[in-house]
């Protein structure tokens, strides 16, 4: 008895890559079993995985965190060097553009019309006293090497900017509104305050930084010294408050929420004080703007 073959035998289709359907692939992912073309193949500990499975694995791995909840970063303190570079560039710009300092400095009378000066002034420095920028940049560098890795880049940047803002708020409340101020001292003193809080929270020896803060605060009150103690004091208190939120927020999955909510509350208080301080500026000075 003879048996014939079917007239039309269906052809076996080659497996294709899901991401590239025009590419046959006989290599399958060790994790999901789907075909993967050479472009979509990634080496794994055992065999090969597709790009989707590798992405899912990476997403499931939590990024290492610093002691205060920031993301651990390898390499240089990018934010510290970026802030230093910004201050130096603006400082050189003050020589190239004589009106730059006048356009960016802060005085209480500018609060209502040009409030951004409360931050831009922190990137200016006295062109007639080079030690002004030299001291601030050295302090920023020295403290930044410690605080930025401990807090993480974003928290360190927020600490610096909010401290600078806090210094300007203190100038508005405690200084003659016609007196202009420049310098990163408010923000730098915020870093001093933050370092003091961090060292205390970690059980370290905070007395040296406490003595350094005391000496620098006293210098601002000496007669003939043209230093804005108001900015120093405001930055110091603000920086200590922000770092306390970062350092003492309870550990757990909601730690970041608590930290950023605390920072938002501090900013809200500073904004209220700004509004209140602006109401105290005598109306006759508005014409000076």
TrEMBL record:
Superkingdom, natural source: Bacteria
Residue ranges of domain Peptidase S54 rhomboid in the record: 114-247
Record's signal peptide: none
Annotated keywords: Hydrolase, Membrane, Protease, Transmembrane, Transmembrane helix
GO MF, one example: peptidase activity
Name of one Pfam family that matches: Rhomboid
Annotated localization: Membrane
One GO term (biological process): proteolysis
Membrane topology: Multi-pass membrane protein
Family to which this protein belongs: Belongs to the peptidase S54 family.
Protein name per the record: Rhomboid family intramembrane serine protease
Naturally occurring in which organism (per UniProt): Arthrobacter halodurans
Organism lineage string: Bacteria, Bacillati, Actinomycetota, Actinomycetes, Micrococcales
